[in-house]
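quick one before i forget lol
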Amino acid sequence: MYDEQITLRNSSFSWENELKRCTSSIESLKSHMLIKTDEEEDLQRVIDSHPMLITRYYLSLIDWDNPDDPVRRMIVPDTEELNMEGSYDTSGERESTKMPGLQHKYKQDALILSTNRCAAYCRYCFRKRLVGLPNEEVLSRFNDAVEYIREHREINNVLISGGDPFVLPTEIIEKFLEELSDIDHIDFIRFGTRTPVTFPGRITSDYRLRNLLRTYSRSHKRIYVVTQFNHLQEITEKSIAAVDALIRSGVIVNNQSVLLKGVNDDPECLGALFNRLVGIGVNPYYLFQCRPVKRVKHHFQVPLSRGYEIVEEAKKLCNGHSKRFKFIMSHNSGKIEILGIMDGMIYLKYHQARNPEDIGRMFSLKINDTAAWLDDLG
């Protein structure tokens, strides 16, 4: 009955057609914000390198009278993106690539880059090198990827990411689930998608997708959705409905936020976000330190010392469930948990590691006020 009600409410909505109505040009932005003539050329240079795409729904969340609006900062191009300090591959993804579209960095985990497209192109994206751009990194031969996973029995879970796999046709998603669910040593399957946040109609309008997730999650392999709410402003009636639809389809929803300068680098903001997420059935899992990506580092990174202070103050505002997240730096060498800072030293621990012998290893390095990444320490 619940799914029927969702379908009836969205019977005239076609998510495929709605994606064609996204904002993707400087000219279309002018109806929402003032763009100075001397700034327009620089903004065009930005989106020529890294395209702009904003769903009408996500655009509607922006308070255009507020120049510091957090959603605007996350999704609208800025001339600060012309700053090329940093790297396009901060986590060593090329090093982990076994074939186009398949990465195997950690022993138990396989990562499939299913597409280079998203419903909305976040300006802080750590895969700016490929999202929305022609490239050879996304999956081209799914059967080869399945065969690799089948042959590597140490892999017990698969993350389907991109881009965003939920912008793919439902038939393609079904093919992924059908093939991967047939592998006996796979315990669960994850989808990395921001559509509950930026394009909730993708979920609430498509009964076939929800029924597919329900069928496979209950009868085959447990399905997780890993999404990314970064600010309380993104939690709306429509995004809550999308989350609820996923949960009712038997899907477990986890959240991986990113600490972003000018967006959520405030204890009260983070604390309120994580408390609200738990209230709508989403589990705060990771808070990522923003990666030093070209066109992102200068614009969005918060120093580690300040980030740690923000996290600890935010946790004081959280309940037991909402403070379970880990503050993580996703480095080339592994996922490093930021444990604490004391007497000029930062204390760290490998939560995951490229070298399995490093998993669980704790270490400390000298900290300074400007260091924002492992390579800045010591």
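fyi Residues 2-376 form a domain with the TIM Barrel fold (CATH 3.20.20.70).
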